[in-house]
Amino acid sequence: MESGAILLYLADLAGGRLVGGPPTAGNVRRARITQWLMWQMGGVGPMFGQLNFFERLPPETDGRSYGIGRYGAEGERLLGVLDSALAGREWLADEEMSVADIAVYPWVVSWMTKHRSAPDAHPHVRAWASRMGAREGVQRGMAVYG
């Protein structure tokens, strides 16, 4: 019922590599991956989703422009956090792609596809999205998405 829990379960079921190994004491990689997965669950998903909701409302709807401004600004802030984190690495949590990258990617691609950010904004996010999008498994998964 909760997508983050489902992703953790599936990653463990698939051998644990995408989630940093077993949930043992001292597993710092798993903690970093879980941190970024929870960041997506509590930030990117809800904020980007709210923007999608307000953008789909008829233009004359009360609160529409407030919602677009509020959630658009928060989405840009979150992308700034992501861009800063990706400045020193290729993947969200560390040197390998993880379930956190998988969870964040569709939201970011949707944002970028809708040209919500300036073309020169978030260069590290754009490079990361390009790396993600080049992966065969990601391409197969995104084909199901849209």
TrEMBL record:
Taxonomic lineage of the native organism? Eukaryota, Rhodophyta, Bangiophyceae, Bangiales, Bangiaceae
Task: Report the PROSITE patterns cross-referenced here.
Answer: GST_CTER (PS50405)
Under the heading PANTHER family, the entry gives:
GLUTATHIONE S-TRANSFERASE GSTA, GLUTATHIONE S-TRANSFERASE-RELATED
Q: What is this protein called?
A: GST C-terminal domain-containing protein
| InterPro entries attached to this UniProt entry | Glutathione-S-Trfase_C-like (IPR010987), Glutathione-S-Trfase_C_sf (IPR036282), Glutathione_S-Trfase (IPR040079), GST_C (IPR004046)
Residue ranges occupied by any GST C-terminal domain in the UniProt entry: 26-146
